[in-house]
Amino acid sequence: MTEQQPYDVVRDYGTFETRRYPEHVLAEVTVEGPFESAGNRAFGLLFGYITGANATRTKIAMTAPVLQSSSDLMIDGVRRSPDIEDVSAPSGPERYRVAFVLPATLTAASAPVPADSTVQLRTVPESVVAAARFSGSWSAARYGAHREKLRADVRAAGLTAIGPDISARFDPPFMPAFLRHNEVLLEVDPSTSSA
Known about the structure:
By secondary structure, the chain is of the alpha+beta class. The protein has a single domain (3-192), classed as Alpha-Beta Barrel (Multidrug-efflux Transporter 1 Regulator Bmrr, Chain A). It is 17% helix and 35% strand. Strands 2-3-11-13-12-6-9-4-10 form a nine-stranded antiparallel sheet, covered by helices on one side. A two-stranded parallel ribbon has the order 1-5. A hairpin with a 2-residue loop joins strand 7 and strand 8 (78-79). The longest helix is centred in the C-terminal third of the chain and has 17 residues, at 140-156. This is Heme-binding protein. InterPro entries: Reg_factor_effector_dom_sf (IPR011256), SOUL_heme-bd (IPR006917). It comes from Microbacterium rhizomatis. It holds the Pfam family SOUL.
């Protein structure tokens, strides 16, 4: 079985839940192109890293989910709130960060250095995240609809979003769409998310 990223449920709101994720390490790649194909373009590089394309030729267990977010919501490593209404659409091709969550036993110091410099390791601090689950296809339109519903539900619950939305995919592409486990994740201010 594939290891899943650990978390604790803070509160169930019915249409979504808030979760506390511990600090974790990502192996990530930034790719250009449409939402639907970004994961496929990045997968080979990330899979290569965990199957031995690293400084110590170490094999690393595959984990779920695979994460994808718009890299245009990150400027010089600084998060921009998804609730800012006057952010204009970026010019040029779409860019996405696609990431594997490394097993919980690895830290940035203990994870092997990627052999390909396009694969970057990044430590994500502990965070509180709103999560909404959905099944079906991975189209941009379908994801966008679930993302907007989660944003509205988060605001209605009195929570404050503080990070970009993230697509979380748990199943391989050959899984029938109606059986797929997908999620929309949105970091929230922990001071607004108590039970």
